[in-house]
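Good morning,

Attaching, inline, the backbone tokens for the sequence recovery test we're adding to the shared suite. The designed sequence is right after.
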């Protein structure tokens, strides 16, 4: 499945969860806060180790000088740090674009409204759709609403499972 659609569904679930909990009040959905759980943080440990190598090399250089091999290793570490920073920035930019695109789509579909202060609130349409009954990927007479399905997945995994999010969000939008 398309990764953008999966991430759209994940962000939609997070947005609906946040706005439903705040309803009827407005909520500040700041992209930095909303995308943070989905950024690639694993490379931070690599960055720390590389930065330590560079720092130690520069310290040794000041105290006693470096061999050509040591200088080469430090230059390689600096290049890797630059590459990791660039990769992190690209990932952050992509996640921000996906999140902001999700907000625009949900707003344009009248599921949420945005204030002049860039705060958000569920519309009557969004609120009513979140309270529709959802079972086995369809509207039914069971007791689980869309928002209950979203909250269940969020609480069971700590972060939403994209496949389930795609099913819930796609069905909700289809029935709106």
């Amino acid at each position: 499945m398309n990764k953008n659609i999966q991430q759209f569904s994940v962000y939609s679930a997070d947005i609906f969860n946040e706005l439903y909990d705040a309803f009827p009040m407005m909520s500040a959905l700041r992209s930095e806060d909303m995308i943070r759980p989905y950024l690639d943080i694993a490379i931070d440990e690599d960055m720390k180790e590389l930065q330590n190598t560079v720092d130690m090399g520069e310290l040794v250089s000041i105290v006693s000088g470096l061999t050509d091999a040591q200088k080469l290793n430090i230059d390689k570490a600096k290049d890797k740090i630059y590459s990791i920073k660039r990769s992190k920035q690209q990932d952050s930019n992509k996640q921000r674009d996906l999140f902001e695109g999700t907000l625009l789509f949900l707003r344009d579909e009248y599921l949420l409204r945005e204030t002049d202060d860039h705060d958000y609130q569920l519309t009557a349409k969004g609120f009513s759709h979140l309270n529709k009954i959802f079972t086995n990927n369809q509207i039914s007479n069971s007791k689980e609403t869309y928002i209950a399905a979203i909250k269940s997945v969020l609480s069971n995994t700590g972060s939403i499972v994209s496949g389930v999010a795609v099913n819930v969000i796609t069905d909700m939008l289809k029935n709106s």
